[in-house]
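ok so i was messing around last nite and threw this chain in just to see what happens. nothing serious, just curious
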Amino acid sequence: MSTLPKIAWIGLGIMGSPMSENLVKAGYQVTGFTLEQEKLDRLAAAGGSTAGSVAEAVRDADVIITMVPASPQVEAIAYGPDGILAHARSGALLIDMSSITPQTSIDLARAAEEKGVRVLDAPVSGGEAGAIEAVLSIMVGGGQADFDEARPIFEALGKTIVLCGPHGSGQTVKAANQLIVAVNIQACAEAVVFLEKSGVDLKAALDVLGGGLAGSTVLARKKENFLDRDFKPGFRIDLHHKDMGIVTDAARTVGAALPVGAVVAQLVASLRAQGDGGLDHSALLRAVERLSGARV
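result:
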């Protein structure tokens, strides 16, 4: 029998499905739960097991991993008579890899401690491609001993794995990450429109820009989206809108000014208001095109 910890995985979306499958490939016994039957079928086809409820999934798990859209969903699956804390065994390790508010993570850790459940907040960066390729950046908040215990699991999911501080620290760093990514995508989108309106060969321009100081992971990952106008969601505008709300609120709480971030947050919100919330965040290009009078 395997000596690896038994894992319950709650949330099998764009990120959760490939991440849970990578744990199956690494030899872990993974039992998943989500609301979409086709996602459960996908996990089963990959060699995992499925459960009919949160309670069933977590009951015998050594490690419980959650990957859901936002704070309300984390609270919904964690609390209440049908939630994780009511059914997880004492001593289990709960790793929340969702992107939520730092305070939600702090509150969850405090509530879990009363039930004998340990918690790490461990949001990720790298998008769908990073999840599939198991090269995510994982920013973790919590205790050193729990982080050390979870590290082999993280190593099956990502390449850059850092304990950033106590509970909530991972979420704070993730908020900063989303600020940088949004501003970077916006800058790239503006450059694309500027280049095209100037009559420059866009592919050639992006190739040379990518090799210089203007190069970035964002440009490398999203270049083909810009070139092909392919906005199939790897990370949806709806979710980045949520994340910009998190970083804006957190920055206000600590007294940090985010003048450029505030503008980009409004541009993300406007794109969502125009019906593009389900598109990839590289669709910020569409907002710049509209502002520039270009055909979208």
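not much to say yet. Strands lie at 7-10, 30-33, 49-50, 63-66, 93-96, 118-121, 124-125, 136-141, 158-165.
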